[in-house]
Amino acid sequence: MVQINRVDPRKSLFKKSVELGEGAIRGYDFEKEFDAGKFFESFKDTGFQATNLASAIRLVKEMRKQKATIFLGFTSNITSSGLRDIITYLVRNRLVHFLVTTTGGLEEDIIKTHGDFLHGSFDADGATLRKKGVNRTGNIFIPNERYIWFERYMKELITKIYAKQKATGRLVDSVEFVREMGKALEGSKRCKESFAYWAYKNNIPLLCVPLADGAIGDHLYFFKKDHKDFGVELSKEVELLY
Asked: CATH 3.40.910.10 occupies which residues in the chain?
């Protein structure tokens, strides 16, 4: 026969507790005169992601106070969204020293200087969008025309870089390649919206480690099919970092 040890449920339900934690959770008091600085400072007591944001704000202030070298890294979805404009502001005003992003992050920054990304829906039917020549990133729509333009842009850019390679006898490195992408925007109507453009203007290294990924990688691959000696030297980024 199995012996069952009976446990008083009250010992589990009414377990004695301790006041564990660092300060009370509370929000900003809007009954007082609004103060933007104190509002953001209050995030540290708000909980959830607001507390993490407050920690990030504190760290950035400390980095600037100590004049630290600031690396800003982000993925392509940041560029897809309106947060790209914040990145551009930081680079334009020299508030960061290095940028690190993905191929998608770089190419979408370039594409947006040609045409807008548009409000869409998470629930949009993929087959219907396909018939209309529209791509979807979350609830953001991107017409195919944007990528068709980007193909022309890349073909012209790579052709110029290849001519430079032939003239100098050396491969362009990846940092220089990305810099040329920003430089190629100069004079265009919306170039000042681009963080790649301002990275070029302010001589801020823009590192794109997986350069052969995404649409850029496709264009590099197809160009090399017709120009076997074409290449991009990839170790410059490592040299810059170390």
From this structure: 69-117+143-241
Residues 122, 154, 165, CA angle at the centre, nearest 5°? 145
Phi and psi for 5 in degrees, rounded to 5? -85, 115
Which residue type sits at 188? S
Band of residue 234 on the pLDDT scale cut at 50, 70, 90: confident
> What pLDDT is attached to residue 239?
83
Helix (H, G, I), strand (E, B) or coil at 155: helix
Q: At residue 30, what is the residue type?
A: F
Q: Which CATH class is domain 69-117+143-241?
A: alpha beta
- Can you give the C-alpha Rg of the chain in angstroms? 25
> Quick check: 181 and 157 in contact, CB under 8 A?
yes
Q: Which residue has the tokens 């045409």?
A: 115
Pairing of strands 98-101, 118-119: unpaired
pTM: 0.87
Q: Strand (E) positions, 58-121?
A: 71-74, 98-101, 118-119
